[in-house]
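*** Backbone structure tokens ***
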Amino acid sequence: MRYLVRKGKYYVILYLTERHSMKVIKKLKEKLEIKRYDFKPEIADGPIENIENAVFYCVDGIGDIMVASPIIRAILEKCTGSAYFICSPTSRLYIELLDKQYSNVVIVPVGKKKALTESSIAHTAANIRKQGKIDVIVNGLGRVSPRFAQLACLLKPRAVLSAMESAKRTSRPKMVHKSVHYANLLYRRGVSIVDCWGIVAQMIGCDYNRSLLFPVADITPERTPYIAVSLLGASWGPISEKNALHICQAISRHYNNDICLIVSPGIEPMCLSIASTLENVFVSPIPPTLELSGAYIKQAQALVAVCSAPVHIAGAFDTPVLVIRGVERSAWRPVVGCAMEYITNDKNINGIDNDKFEACFAEFINKVGL
């Protein structure tokens, strides 16, 4: 557990282990004058206008959410300068779609297989600040994570826009608790923190409706009914083809209808290979578009997602979800629409025990009535 606190003119990162009791933490907080900020939306400057430069934080494979959101597009259209997208390899595949549509998009790639570090965040922030003052920084993770908060502190924007609304609906108070201290630091520095997408939409002048989060194409899939399967992982890349095949085979043994693999940029060959191996598997349209992928997720009876952002999309349509995630990837618990989750034996998504997953899927099928 890390706390970013100010002592004099320096910022100090205080490391606390989970072994510290809440009593000890409380005393430390009082000593260091850290006050909890409960993320009540504060709109100090009213509607956000005159946006010159903006930064979008979209790591951990959430690029499709950022691309799909009408709020993001509204900010891009208001932005008269540059829109910097800090993205990991998986998210970059999606952000490149925006790059083709908007001339002011600047892709800032970070990380390879490892998560962002404090030093890489500092380096990235320094490079962006050289280009000019930042007006708005947007977080797509559904929570104010420590890395994002550190970035926001370094960039000193006029406003921080974050989707904390979704995190409040989870059973993850610890995750929110870890972030409130960073948010407090921003708040005390005069930065407006807006934590609800609905309020962000009002400030940005954008019509927003959760059911229309994703621009869905009006089409009927060629094979129905079916379960959708998303294989795109997080920032470390997709699941292996061997494990993906085992997942589809396990689903086939307990579900008598078809399986639709939701194609994402970069995993088309793997999806086509699995579809050619199993008769009951077909793929969503290639090349993938957000409108078509959203339509196939919306019309599925359920979604099996490997640690990926389609979980959030499914939540907009109340599609039941079974999430596969690594044992240390608690941040990837879905925010809405989840029925169950399967946790692998490893810290990444490829440590799947086939028998345990099959038992978990059978339980999931019974739970959602399929």
In short: The longest strand covers residues 2-7.
